[in-house]
């Protein structure tokens, strides 16, 4: 066989175009020197991926000229995806963007870091073909988006990162994006009082900071929600109308401020009561346990909850809180307890007097973190308590833990004594 035969060049144009669409545009353009066959193929891909990574830091103007040149020499065919990434020491030019928008892209992704404050051109907010828009800006201070108008009739997914969001902009976005189903906000400054939409199905608030007394979420069609924030900021979020919510993940981390009183307000918990899958991750809540137990009791029964995950708890203080959740979840089928710390403390706690009664609980998973370490001296301060499980239909138990972890055998012993219906016990060591 002649290994020097060029088999790739014999492929049809549409196949070569598809291959080039997976490359950064700079690399795709370079293929024009391979042969006459490749001279114009680079101008046809439906994906343009401009990345400043392979340019020198002071070559911002050269990069701008490259982008303009590619768009000037590209064919008139519609553009599916436009990607623009880079870390710039000065503001890049956006003169080329209106021409790119006229190519009717379906997806636009901007991820840039600039030293100076940067304002995104308005032209992208009037692209009727756009279905997915991602704008992530890191600059000196949060970037501000203030389009004169928003007309994105086809937009379904919007992701904003490191943006200062003001009330006027949020109103324009929801009015100008009638088909918006998925909203993701990442490390944004929220100068807003509400997130209100009848069509929104997925909402992500990832490490955003609220600068108003309350942020009200009123989205009757919301199905999935992810919130990661501090234990202080979570108290400003109110779930007013989330009747369709099925999946929710709430992750809270600590902060320098002292946390007292309500952590999850009762309206927030009530907004989660219709979920079928709920994940809660907390870093440290010893001073808030009693209030949380009270709030959970006041919010009613989680009648639809089938899967509950609770992670990163200080189990010395919060195991009874887990029990409270379980007592208010009569149809629960799967429980996952992620034990990031306090492995040996949990062993001692398995003597506590907390009675849990369920009809439908089917599986229990114990997940122990690889970095799990015993904090010496805590056991001496911890009161001994008994925990007894009365679970009629528990069928399978999953225990995932370190090799030769004493917790695994202890859990098997306790569950075996209290739950007579167990048929399968699976131990997953790592």
Ordered list of secondary-structure elements with their pairings:
Layout: H1 13-20, H2 25-30, E1 47-51, H3 60-73, E2 81-88, H4 97-101, E3 107-114, E4 132-138, E5 143-144, E6 157-161, E7 163-166, H5 167-176, E8 182-186, E9 189-191, E10 194-196, E11 202-206, E12 209-210, E13 215-218, E14 224-230, E15 237-241, E16 247-253, H6 266-271, E17 277-282, H7 289-298, E18 307-311, H8 315-327, E19 334-339, H9 343-349, E20 354-358, E21 363-368, H10 378-381, E22 387-391, E23 396-401, H11 406-418, E24 424-429
Helix pairs in contact: 7-8, 9-11
Domain F-box: 5-55
InterPro entries: F-box-like_dom_sf, F-box_AtFBL13-like, F-box_dom, F-box_SCFL_complex_component, LRR_At1g61320_AtMIF1, LRR_dom_sf
Protein name: F-box domain-containing protein
Describe the structure.
With 430 residues, this protein is of the alpha/beta class. It has a domain at 334-430. Helix content is 22%, strand content 29%. It contains eleven helices and 24 strands. The strands form four sheets. It has a 15-stranded parallel sheet, covered by helices on one side. It has a four-stranded parallel sheet with strand order 5-7-9-12. The chain is globular. It starts with 12 loop residues before the first helix and ends with a strand. Mean pLDDT is 77; it is low at 341-360 and 368-389. Residues 5-55 form the F-box domain. InterPro entries: F-box-like_dom_sf (IPR036047), F-box_AtFBL13-like (IPR053781), F-box_dom (IPR001810), F-box_SCFL_complex_component (IPR053197), LRR_At1g61320_AtMIF1 (IPR055357), LRR_dom_sf (IPR032675). It holds the Pfam family F-box. This is F-box domain-containing protein.
């Amino acid at each position: 066989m002649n290994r020097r035969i060029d088999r790739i060049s014999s492929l049809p144009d549409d196949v070569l175009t598809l291959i080039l669409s997976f490359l950064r545009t700079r690399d795709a353009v370079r293929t024009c020197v391979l042969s006459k066959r490749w001279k114009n193929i680079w101008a046809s891909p439906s994906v343009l991926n401009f990345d400043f990574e392979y340019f020198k830091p002071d070559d911002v103007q050269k990069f701008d000229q490259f982008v303009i040149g590619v768009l000037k020499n590209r064919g008139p065919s519609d553009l599916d995806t436009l990607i623009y990434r880079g870390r710039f020491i000065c503001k890049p030019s956006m003169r080329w963007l209106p021409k790119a928008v006229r190519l009717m892209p379906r997806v636009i992704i901007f991820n840039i870091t600039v030293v100076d404050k940067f304002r995104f051109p308005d032209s992208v907010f009037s692209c009727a073909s756009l279905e997915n828009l991602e704008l992530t800006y890191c600059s000196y201070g949060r970037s501000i988006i203030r389009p004169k108008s928003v007309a994105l009739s086809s937009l379904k997914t919007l992701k904003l990162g490191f943006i200062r969001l003001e009330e006027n902009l949020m109103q324009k976005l929801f009015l100008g994006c009638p088909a918006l189903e998925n909203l993701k906000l990442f490390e944004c400054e929220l100068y807003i009082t509400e997130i209100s939409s009848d069509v929104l199905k997925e909402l992500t608030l990832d490490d955003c900071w609220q600068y108003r007394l309350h942020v009200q979420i009123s989205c009757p069609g919301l199905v999935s929600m992810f919130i990661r924030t501090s234990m202080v900021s979570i108290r400003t979020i109110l779930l007013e109308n989330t009747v369709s919510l099925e999946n929710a993940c709430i992750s809270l981390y600590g902060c320098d401020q002292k946390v007292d009183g309500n952590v999850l307000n009762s309206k927030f918990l009530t907004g989660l009561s219709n979920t079928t899958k709920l994940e809660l991750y907390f870093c440290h809540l010893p001073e808030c346990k009693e209030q949380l137990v009270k709030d959970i009791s006041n919010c009613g029964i989680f009648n639809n909850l089938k899967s509950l995950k609770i992670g990163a708890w200080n189990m010395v203080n919060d195991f009874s809180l887990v029990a409270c959740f379980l007592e208010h979840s009569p149809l629960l089928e799967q429980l996952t307890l992620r034990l990031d710390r306090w492995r040996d403390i949990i062993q001692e706690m398995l003597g506590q007097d907390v009675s849990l009664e369920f009809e439908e609980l089917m599986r229990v998973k114990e997940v122990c973190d690889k970095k799990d370490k015993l904090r010496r001296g805590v056991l001496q301060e911890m009161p001994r308590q008994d925990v007894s499980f009365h679970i009629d239909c528990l069928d399978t138990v999953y225990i995932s833990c370190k090799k030769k972890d004493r917790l695994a055998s202890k859990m098997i012993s306790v569950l075996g004594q209290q739950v007579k219906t167990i048929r399968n016990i699976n131990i997953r060591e790592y």
